[in-house]
Write a structure and sequence with these properties.
The strands form 2 sheets. This protein has a 6-stranded mixed beta sheet, sandwiched between helices. Strands 2-1-4-5 form a 4-stranded antiparallel beta sheet, covered by helices on one side. The chain contains 15 helices and 10 strands. It has helices at about 5-15, 20-30, 30-40, 45-55, 60-65, 75-90, 95-100, 160-165, 190-200, 215-225, 230-240, 260-270, 290-305, 315-320, 345-365; strands at about 105-120, 130-145, 145-150, 175-180, 180, 200, 275-280, 310, 325-330, 330-340. It has 2 domains: about 5-90, 434 Repressor (Amino-terminal Domain); about 105-365, Rossmann fold. It is elongated. Strand 7, helix 13 (about 290-305) and strand 8 form a beta-alpha-beta unit. Mean pLDDT is about 90; it is low at about 90-105. By secondary structure, it is an alpha/beta fold. The longest helix has 21 residues, at about 345-365. The protein binds adenosine-5'-diphosphate and magnesium ion. Adenosine-5'-diphosphate binds next to strand 2 and helix 8. Adenosine-5'-diphosphate (ADP) binds near residues 134 and 157.
């Protein structure tokens, strides 16, 4: 983001309107000095000033951030450029680059020999022998930028596994490294901080706070990550256009469709640039059209935003969007399947075959 260019652009638009600096300042109910500081590139307008300034000068937010007029046909390209600029600015070049080379490993997630034994101390689960080995000696890795699915019948341990990776639950044994950091035994406060800084979540339901608007739901994630407040609105604006939710930002979650809610959850998950996005049956409550739209969105987040996604699903159609599938049964990973170069249809058929094979194996025992 070029502050000087933005300043010069504000100055040019103001002059085109025939206003002096003090006249513009008066309209915005701020001091002349503030306007002069913007125009010379010494400071950026405050977040609350962006919209009134754009309205007064008759420019779009994208144009303000680009510091120039944008022709209609170039709008998409420019908007992406501006978003990239904002993101880079907010992260800082060092952090952006160091993220790749922080760890020697190309993997975002490394799970080694983890197990989870539930002792039967809750009345919710009727367990005869008093304990359940919900996850049994599981190991796998997830490389940067991949979209990995976990499949398995109900009760096979998918949610437990995801909760362990999410630091919501603690493994009985084993290590889990996210971007090189072992998170398996973080104390609760550190775990909460880790979740805020490094993880994004998309669940089947209860994704959004009902008392906040869609915009506020997304902004909240950024605020919790201490993103400078002047960067928040442009970030949300660009991203929501990309996810086709720009027109519903001021609505409350109960006013929009299930598909739109899930795309908002995607926006909220990706906007903080997490190391990994964890999704538990995200399409579970959607009709097939909305489910496909959500899966396209998740794929886009991987391809265009470099997101790494781990998604639990028992739906073969949803799984066919992934690059790799891990198959769970009785707490263990029984098989894995890569999409390789194949298309979704081929992968769909391969997944079905694998499921049949796993079922067959267990019948033979
Ligand atoms: P999935 O998500 O694949 O349906 P879960 O991870 O929810 O499977 O459950 C795996 C197994 O662990 C099941 O047998 C379930 O009953 C048991 N389980 C899950 N959570 C608990 C818990 N909090 N206490 C005791 N047993 C649990
Ligand atoms: Mg589950």
């Amino acid at each position: 983001m070029n502050q000087i260019k933005i300043g010069a652009f504000i100055s040019e638009c103001r002059k085109a309107k025939g206003w002096t600096q003090s006249q513009l300042a008066e309209k915005l109910e701020i001091t002349d000095k503030a306007v002069s500081k913007w125009e010379t590139g010494r400071s950026m307008p405050d977040l609350s000033m962006f919209m009134p300034l754009c309205t007064l000068l008759g420019v779009s937010l994208n144009e303000l951030f680009a510091g120039e007029r944008i022709a209609e046909e170039k709008l998409k390209e420019k908007a992406d450029e501006v978003l990239m600029d904002v993101i880079t600015n907010w992260l800082g070049h060092d952090k952006w680059e160091s993220k790749e080379c922080d760890t020697e490993s190309p993997n975002v997630l490394e799970v080694e020999n983890i197990s989870k034994l539930y002792e039967n101390d809750s009345t919710e689960y009727e367990i005869e022998n008093n304990s359940v080995l919900a996850v049994n000696d599981v190991s796998f890795q997830i490389p940067h930028g991949s979209f990995v699915g976990i499949m398995g019948a109900s009760g096979s341990g998918k949610t437990t596994l995801l909760n362990l990776i999410a630091t919501i639950d603690k493994p009985t044994n084993g290590t889990i490294r996210i971007s090189g950091q072992n998170i398996a035994d973080l104390p609760e406060e550190a775990a909460a901080e880790f979740r805020r800084r490094h993880l994004g979540f998309i669940f089947q339901e209860y994704n959004l706070l009902e008392t906040l608007t869609i915009y506020e739901n997304i902004a909240l994630a950024l605020t919790m990550k201490e993103v400078p407040k002047e960067s928040i609105r442009p970030m949300i604006q660009s991203l929501s256009e990309k996810l086709d939710i720009a027109t519903i930002l001021d609505k409350f979650p109960y006013e929009v469709s299930g598909g739109q809610r899930q795309r908002c959850a995607c926006a909220r998950a990706i906007v903080v640039n997490p190391d990994i996005i964890l999704a538990d049956e995200p399409t579970g409550a959607l009709d097939s059209h909305a489910a496909r739209q959500l899966l396209d969105t998740l794929t886009m987040l991987c391809r265009e935003y470099g997101a790494t996604i781990l998604m639990v699903t028992h739906d073969v159609m949803a799984a066919s969007y992934c690059d790799r599938i891990l198959f769970m049964k009785d707490g263990e990973i029984k098989a894995a399947l890569n999409r390789e170069q194949g298309d979704k249809q081929t992968f769909f058929a391969d997944i079905l075959k694998k499921i049949e094979w796993i079922e067959g194996e267990s019948r033979c025992i």
